[in-house]
Design a protein that fits this description.
Blueprint (H helix, E strand, L loop, with lengths): L4 E3 L2 H8 L8 H32 L5 H29 L8 H39 L8 H4 L2 H7 L2 H30 L17 H5 L2 H36 L8 H38 L3 E3 L13 H15 L1 H12 L1 H54 L1
Antiparallel strand pairs: 1-2
Helix pairs in contact: 2-3, 2-11, 2-12, 2-13, 3-4, 3-7, 3-12, 4-7, 4-9, 4-10, 9-10, 10-11, 10-12, 12-13
InterPro entries: GPCR_Rhodpsn (IPR000276), GPCR_Rhodpsn_7TM (IPR017452), GPR82 (IPR042804)
Keywords: Membrane, Transmembrane, Transmembrane helix
Protein name: G-protein coupled receptors family 1 profile domain-containing protein
């Protein structure tokens, strides 16, 4: 049978686009839930251990420890959401849009996910910039860096204070929450739910174009947030390039030899942060504007009378799955961040190894204790049996 399609007017295009259901493949139904469950079992203990080391094992907190401890708290919140994300991708095509679990994902999980991404972005950027600022203040080549004259001297002094680091982290949390929550609330309350009351069409399920594509307002806000991401990303890249330049200048200066270990350590830390941002966050933020453009500019096609829209697939189904896979890559940072702490901070590395060795020695002592106790009990039992046998023999001899 020939399918006759006609193009809708812009006023009705968005309404018609939500009549087509998304068609999830094995990538959505099986791969994403599996990885999110694995993420839960790796990110939760890893960040709990990191937070324990920062708060209980390190006696003197440095500004870097403050930044990374706040990052661990953010990652803990993300790791708690991963089982719900696994359930959403596995059962979202079955859940009703008005169901409790779907509403939990829309109103609770979505804000936490985006808040975590941009808290991590700002904290990591600040760690990189503060390391660079401390470097150019404490090591000078033949000619001091221009940053030492552009930035006020009090700024470098505050960098070494824990109170300043706490203020920065509180500001980062406030900016992230106040900037992300209004957009996600508008998306979850108005855009995702706006087509639930339409008459006709297919059954409204949770994993649907209305939820995955959003609307024009959330798309505009996303574009603004993506622009902010690239600003922070370029700041980290700039600090990396300036450290390289500073190292080249320092190698030509004889009195800077004693600081070469510091230079290499700062360079390594900034490179680690740059790699984390490039591998985990950059692909999602490159593809998201493309996805928003496709969702906004595509002229949706409506079926002619008699054509079953519910048996068709939304034309952006494959792009939705690609977006979700790239978002998974961004969420995987919650598992890799504890490894990053291990590389970035020597005190954290030493305290973590000491804690693990302590737990290992305690386990060995317990094993030795229980082994000794069991062998002692066995000896007592054997002695008891021998005494019983001896007493029985003596008793029988006396009777005889």
């Amino acid at each position: 049978m020939e399918d006759t399609l006609h193009t809708l007017s812009p006023a009705n295009a968005s309404s018609a686009s939500f009549d087509y259901p998304l068609c999830p493949t094995a990538a959505t139904l099986f791969f994403l839930p599996t990885i999110y469950i694995l993420l839960f079992f790796t990110a939760l203990p890893g960040n709990l251990l990191s937070l324990w080391v920062f708060l209980r094992c390190i006696s003197t907190m440095s500004p870097t420890h403050v930044y990374l401890s706040h990052l661990s708290i953010s990652n803990l919140l993300l790791s708690i959401t991963t089982p719900f994300l696994a359930a959403y991708y596995a059962r979202g095509p079955v859940w009703t849009l008005r169901g409790v679990l779907c509403q939990l994902v829309l109103h609770g999980i979505t804000p936490v996910l985006h808040i975590n991404i941009y808290i991590s972005l700002m904290i990591l950027t600040w760690v990189a910039l503060s390391r660079f600022a401390a470097l150019i203040q404490n090591t000078h080549a033949s000619r001091p860096s221009a940053f030492t004259t552009l930035l006020p001297h009090g700024f470098f002094t505050r960098l070494t204070k824990v109170s300043f680091a706490n203020t920065v982290c509180v500001t980062v949390w406030a900016v992230s929450v106040c900037g992300i929550v209004p957009g996600t609330v508008y998306y979850s309350v108005h855009e995702a739910m706006s087509h639930d009351h339409e008459k006709g069409g297919c059954e409204k399920v949770c994993y649907s174009p209305a939820v995955e594509l959003g609307g024009s307002v959330s798309g505009t806000l996303s574009a603004m947030v993506i622009s902010i991401f690239f600003v922070f990303y370029l700041l980290v890249l700039l600090s990396y390039m300036m450290v390289l330049r500073h190292i080249r200048r320092s190698r030509r200066d004889a009195h800077i030899i004693t600081s070469k270990s510091l230079l290499s350590r700062v360079l390594r830390n900034i490179v680690v942060i740059q790699v984390v941002l490039s591998v985990c966050l950059l692909p999602y933020h490159i593809f998201k504007p493309i996805f928003i453009s496709l969702a906004h500019d595509q002229l949706e096609l409506a079926p002619s009378p008699g054509n079953d829209t519910c048996s068709s697939c939304h034309p952006l189904s494959i792009f939705v799955e690609l977006k979700n896979c790239l978002f998974l890559l961004a969420a995987l940072r919650a598992s890799t961040d504890p490894v990053m702490y291990f590389v970035l901070d020597r005190t954290f590395r030493c305290q973590t190894l000491r804690l693990l060795r302590c737990n290992e020695s305690i386990a060995k002592r317990r094993q030795i204790f229980w082994t000794t106790k069991e062998s002692t009990n066995q000896k007592v039992e054997r002695l008891g049996e021998e005494n019983v046998v001896t007493a029985t023999a003596e008793l029988s001899q006396s009777v005889l």
